[in-house]
Specification:
The structure is a single chain. The protein folds into 2 domains: about 45 residues; about 55 residues. Helix content is about 65%, strand content about 10%. It is built from 5 helices and 3 strands, in the order ααβααββα. Strands 1-3-2 form a 3-stranded antiparallel β-sheet.
């Protein structure tokens, strides 16, 4: 059965069942959006899992840890305070941050209390 045949059968079922076509279309769009969101989240989880097993963090994780904006993160990379790798030459390519360089940056910003001196 072709895709068009399936759509035709679905339309006949809707007419026969008395369901409101507009509501069905809204529900289909909502379900499709949920499916796309779930796929996107799953891809992000898989990417995080892969980077957790390595010595790299994705840029959004690094921004969350440092509580900085994307532009501040780029300033830290350009200044050499963070080591980074870009996954593609494209402007929108994913940026990975070295965990050891992040740890070093955080250690350099550590505040030493009187009891720790």
């Amino acid at each position: 059965m072709s895709k068009d045949d399936g759509a035709a059968q679905a339309a006949k079922f809707l007419v026969a069942s008395g369901l409101d076509l507009g509501e069905v279309v809204k529900e289909c769009r909502r379900l499709d959006a949920e499916r796309l969101d779930a796929e996107r989240l799953d891809a992000e989880r898989q990417e995080r899992k892969a980077t957790k097993e390595s010595q790299w963090l994705i840029s959004t994780e690094t921004m969350a840890i440092l509580r900085v904006s994307r532009s501040t993160l780029w300033r830290l990379v350009r200044s050499g305070q963070l080591k980074a790798a870009k996954l593609s030459a494209a402007r929108s390519g994913k940026l990975l941050i070295s965990k050891p360089s992040l740890d070093a940056l955080l250690e350099s910003r550590r505040i030493v209390g009187r009891n720790e001196e």
